[in-house]
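Worked Example 4.2. Consider the chain below.
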Amino acid sequence: MTTAGTPTTPGQGPLSGVRVVELAGIGPGPFAAMLLADLGADVVRVDRPGGPGLGIDPAYDVTNRNKRSVIVDLKAADGPARVLDLAARADVLVEGYRPGVAERLGVGPADCHARNPRLVYGRMTGWGQDGPLADRAGHDVAYIALTGTLGMIGRPGEPPAVPANLLGDYAGGALYLVVGVLAALHHARATGTGQVVDAAIVDGTAHLSAMIHGMLAAGGWQDRRGTNLLDGGCPYYGTYATADGGHMAVGALEARFYEEFLRLLGLDDLVPARGDLNRWDELRERVAARFRSRTRAEWTAVFEGSDACVAPVLSLREAPHHPHLAARGTFTGHAGITQPAPAPRFSATPTHVRSGPALPGAGADTVARDWGIPGLAPGPVTDPAPDPVPDEPAAEGA
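Applying the procedure from the previous section yields the following structure tokens:
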């Protein structure tokens, strides 16, 4: 896939030489493009004049790291042609518009494939490209609500707990888009033919629950939250408060881990309660009382080095300083921003954070040179964001 002018620095990652065009959006699309960039792809983000209608200061938007940015007004007379010039030189294009918007703008799959039949055209939406809700706006919490996964999370008798936007946007959305793009890229290399990847958050999130559906069919899972082995219903798989307001996470499922867990708590007499559902309330109450008797740090020391499967619940700011994560370099610092390092890891083609968040338009000159498109507008644009454009997505994956 390598072409003239594409950076191929050793150690850049397994996707070195792969060119990706990202039509700017918010949420899972940028994250998916970041993951491709982390893996070494040359990702060019096409920003709109004035930037997105939602979002943080571009200088801190980690999902735009390892990319370059150009600015194209797709509603200008020459806007679509500039994007098609990029698509003609790319291996992958990623967009997150509502169904039909890219086509109306003149940069839909048919337009792009007319210029580049090998192109993998990745579409990131919440509801998918078809179906009764396809044209509706939405956000993560609504998407996962319809799949049944949101209804699994939380305590019985209370409203479902919202898992940030990790389950829908990023797990069910962005990661499935990347898997689809890579599979389609493999097919394109083998056959010379590109295709469209329809990645819908509802589809990916539903797919994530495959094991649970199997357990449900087998009678090993109740269709109500907080009553099952892995949803907090089990007293030796969940979280407990400590004396200082912290929390400990417990995952002592197997018998030997459970026995070690109770031994370190000083509750050996409760070993028989593991398989006795009638004693689970007693087990939960006594375990909770023990955890409330000491601080999080004290309990962390108690379970240190054991196989009891117990860990302190850390905050986002605490996590990078944990000795294990620090030793592995799970988090890294770049341009003054502490952030997760690229994952997964590769023995022959290691990845790293090569550059900080791409400022809108700042990469136009180098992209024009490397991709051979001299008409790209140079320099960053700092105008305030305009009002949201009616026919473009008002929400991530919408």
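Residues 1-10, 379-398 have pLDDT under 50 and may be disordered. The radius of gyration is 24 Å. Compare this with Example 4.1 before moving on.
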